[in-house]
Structures are given as C-alpha cells and as structure tokens.
Design goal:
Length: about 475
C-alpha cells in the first residue's frame, strides 16, 4: 500500500462541515493517498472558553503534518474573538495567499469570456496585523503595518510563480498616491524586484482603477500581486465575476507549512441547508494534492469536476434559472460518478500541469538603507471641546531646547498656527515637534512629555519622526 501523507483537516463553521464532507468523499473515491487527522478549530472551540479558537490537539496535529486543509471559520463582525484564519496564517508563516480564478464558459455563467488570473495576496501584514486602539472617546486608530521583508517575500513569490507557470505579466495594485510611505514601500520594492525578471512584464496600477479594470476587463490580467486587504477584496470580486465565490480555492504557503481553503467564508445564510457549492474547498484540496506530490490524483479529480460542470451538474449558486440545482451531497456524487472521465469541451488537466517553484529568499539588495536619524516627535493628545488657538498656545510652552513645537493638526489637517478655516470635529490632536536631524534625543522627548503633562494635558500616544538616508519618512501635515 502506498505511503499515506498525514494531513490535518478541520471541518469549520457554517457550511464548513457540509462542504468538507463532500470534499473528503471525493478525495477518498479518487484514491488520494492521505491520512486525514480531523481537528476542531473555530466558533465551537471559542465558545468552550479557548481564546484562540484552536485546540491543543489541533496545534499539535498541524505542527506534525505541516499540511492543513481547512473549511471556513466564522469570525464575528465588529467585536468578539480574533480571526482564527489570520492567527493560522501568521503563526505558521504562511506569507503567500495564492488564489487562482478562471471562467468555465459556457457551462458556468459569467459576463466575461476568458478570465484566467492568479491573485497573489500578502498574507501576514497590512491592516490584518490586527493592531487597533480606541484612543479617545471619539476616535480609534488602526495600524497598517508593512515591512520591506514581507513586501519582498510576496513580490518575489509572485514573479517566481509567474515564471514557473509560464505566465507573462505581474500587475501590482497599490494606493501610494495616498499612503505614500506604506504602499509606497510596497511599490518601490515591486519596481526593484521586477527589474530582476526581464522575461515577465511588470505593471503597477492604483488599486481603485485596478479593481475597476479587473471587474470590467478581467481577461487582461495574469498574475496580480497586492497587499493583504486589497488582495482579499479583489479575489472575491474576481471569483464572483468568474461565476461564483463558491468556486475558487486558495493555498496559503510558507517556508515550512501550507494551508488550503476556499476563498469564501462560512456562509451562515445558507448553513445547514445542504445547498452550498463544495467546489471552492475541492479546488483547495486539488492545490493541496499538487503540493504534496499527488498531481496524478489532483488531475483526476479536476477532470471529473470539470466534466460534472460540463454535464450540467450545478449547485444553486451557479445553476441556470430553468434548471434544478443539486444539493451539496448530490454534487459530490456527480463528481464521484465522473471520476476517470475527461472534460469534453474544456481543456483537461494533466498531472504535469503543476510546476514546482523556487521559494523566495529575502535578498540584501532591498535592505540597503544605511542611516536612520531621529528628527522629532508627534505627540497625540485627547482633549474634547478644545479651541485650537488656546490649545496651540499651551503647547508652545512645552518646547525644550533642541526640540521645538511646529504645528498642530487634527485628522491630519493643520489646525494651528494660522489655520482660520480649520474645521474641528474631534477630541484627537497631533502636535509635531522638530529639531536638528540626528541631534534629537529620547531624553528631550521625555522632557517635552513632562511639560505637556505639567500643562494638565492628556497625551495618548507618541510617534518618533525619523529620516532614512536623509529622506523624511513620516507623513506631512496637510495644509502646511
Ligand atoms: P461568505 O463568503 O461566507 O458569503 C458571502 C455570500 O456568498 C453569501 O451569500 C453566501 O451564501 C455565498 N457563498 C459563500 N460560499 C458559498 C458556497 N460555497 N456556495 C454557495 N454560496 C456561497 O462571506 P460573509 O457572509 O461575508 O462571511 C461569513 C463568515 O465567514 C464571517 O464570519 C467571515 O468572517 C467568515 N469568513 C471566513 C473566511 C475563512 O474562513 N477563510 C473567509 C471569509 C469570510
């Protein structure tokens, strides 16, 4: 008997158990050489009092198998426990989220003819770093965390993926006209890495027009690389316009571990009805089989699945209005019945389609910054109902030798001095102090803070201001 590959499997929340059961039945019928270890993660585990939503047995299983097939997990909106999905991606260093999206015309309706793109989404950073604060009664603060290393890893991954899979173009989506420092870093690294891959066309688009074009003319896109949040949004757009969010699978790849899941969530609106499309999770399982070296089984399942679609076996989300939709279990039966058959109109999958690729390593070329110098500090205050001129006059008294108060802003816009048109609506103020580049010290910053406190003011955050190789790397105050 062939050696079985141990794989951790979680049935998840909402529609998760239904689509996982369907997927596992197909894998078994196709002869996938895997030994599943079923574990509990998600809502039920949280509700039993486990804060991270993952049982000790689940952690142990993933650490030993290093391969995780995961059904969707419910994450509450606007409060409650943190996302298990994000925890998994970050704990296991799954820096790359690869989401292939294509059309299946004329068998699955789409307004577009030929979508065939792969979204490569950064998976650990950006606003998903999960660092958020409520700072005053009126305001909150979400940290967009970006690193040069994380950016380089995902961008290199996208180019290596393109090269290994014979793809021609990598498009980078950013918003660096507004987030000049964080998205600006991603874009700079993209341009630097792109120059190492002259055989691949590189283009950059501002994310808003980029997404609009993906929704309008998706056929012009090939590989798309982008930040975590944009990547999440754009992959739902792409999979929905290709036919249904229920179709797309994804892999989360790191140096040591890999996790495979559908692009969609736990769909609580249809959970328990037995009508969900298991294809997204099945496609994730196909990616997993390739990853563990079972491309023969992966191709057999993919061909059966394509044939089932061609033969008109459709779940409700992709079913034509005049046809009867199959249940999740009936659809799985239809795919099983097609095992061993090839699609007749769509191109069949071949075991050799999957190309192993070189995993990226961070190079020294992008770590070229030599000097970092302290030039000032932004001190944030909580003060409801303040008059900016009166508050500004108080802050003027808190300068110390070598570190001088320059400007006060609220919501990023100058409100003092000389800002007669300023419209004040919050209790959150930023006071900028600057000195001579490289001469400012932490001791001076502590002296300013002591004087701020002596004025009876409530400082809630400080942010040091630095130059890197002489470049001022902090946002300007609007209106300066
Ligand atoms: P969703 O993707 O679960 O559902 C969006 C819509 O698509 C719903 O109308 C749903 O019925 C439909 N849909 C989704 N999957 C389908 C399928 N396989 N077959 C047929 N229709 C399908 O998104 P949501 O409603 O925004 O989120 C629900 C929950 O899922 C939330 O708690 C969210 O945090 C979580 N979520 C989890 C993951 C994950 O586990 N990786 C990803 C996204 C969302």
């Amino acid at each position: 008997m062939a050696n079985l590959v141990p794989v951790t499997v979680a049935r998840g929340d909402g529609i998760g158990p239904e689509i996982m059961d369907a997927t596992m039945r197909i894998l078994e019928a196709a002869g996938a050489r895997i030994a599943p270890e079923f574990v509990d993660i998600g809502e039920k585990v949280y509700l039993s009092g486990n804060n991270n939503g993952v049982t000790d047995a689940a952690w142990a299983s993933i650490r030993s198998t290093k391969i995780f097939l995961k059904a969707p997990i419910t994450t509450p909106q606007g409060g409650g426990y943190k996302s298990v999905n994000v925890t998994m991606r970050k704990t296991f260093g799954l820096f790359s989220n690869v989401r292939p999206v294509r059309t299946f015309k004329p068998f699955v309706h789409s307004k577009h003819d030929a979508i065939d793109m792969v979204i490569v989404r950064e998976n650990e950073e950006d606003l998903y770093a999960g660092i958020e604060y409520r700072q005053t009664r009126d305001t909150c603060h979400s940290v967009k965390f970006m690193s040069r290393t994380g950016s380089e890893m995902i961008i290199r991954y996208a180019f290596e993926y393109a090269r290994a899979n014979g793809r021609k173009k990598v498009t980078c989506l950013i918003k660096d006209n507004i987030m000049k420092i964080s998205d600006g870093l991603f874009h700079k690294v993209f341009k630097l890495i792109a120059s190492e891959y002259p055989d691949i066309q590189a283009e950059s688009l501002i994310v808003d027009i980029g997404m609009a074009r993906i929704a309008d003319t998706p056929e012009r896109f090939d590989v798309v690389v982008t930040l975590n949040l944009y990547g999440d949004i754009v992959s739902d757009i792409a999979s929905q316009i290709a036919g249904s969010v229920g179709l797309a699978g994804s892999s989360n790849i790191g140096d040591e571990y890999a996790m495979f899941e559908a692009v969609h969530g736990s769909a609580p609106d249809i959970a328990g009805k037995g009508i969900a499309n298991p294809s997204g999770l099945l496609n994730a399982a196909i990616l997993m089989l390739h990853h563990i070296g079972q491309s023969d089984v992966a191709a057999t399942i993919q061909n059966a699945w394509l044939r089932a679609l061609e033969d008109g076996h459709h779940t409700a989300d992709i079913c034509a209005p005049n046809k009867k939709a199959l249940t999740t279990a009936q659809f799985a039966d239809a795919v099983i019945a097609c095992l061993g058959k090839l699609p007749q109109a769509m191109a069949p999958a071949k075991a050799g389609d999957f190309k192993a690729m070189k995993m990226p390593k961070v190079s020294e070329t992008t770590k070229s910054v030599r000097t970092k110098r302290l030039i000032g500090v932004d001190i944030f205050l909580d003060k409801a109902g303040a008059n900016p001129n009166e508050l500004g006059a108080l802050i003027e008294k808190t300068s110390v030798p070598g570190l001088t108060f320059k400007v006060m802003s609220s919501r990023g816009v100058k409100v003092y001095p000389d800002a007669p048109n300023a419209r004040i609506v919050t209790d959150h103020w930023r006071c900028r102090f600057e000195g001579e580049e490289g001469k400012v010290t932490n001791a001076q910053i502590r002296d300013v803070l002591a004087k701020v406190e002596a004025q009876g003011l409530d400082w809630i955050e400080i942010q040091n201001l630095y130059t890197f190789d002489g470049e001022r790397c902090f946002s300007q105050v609007q209106g300066m």
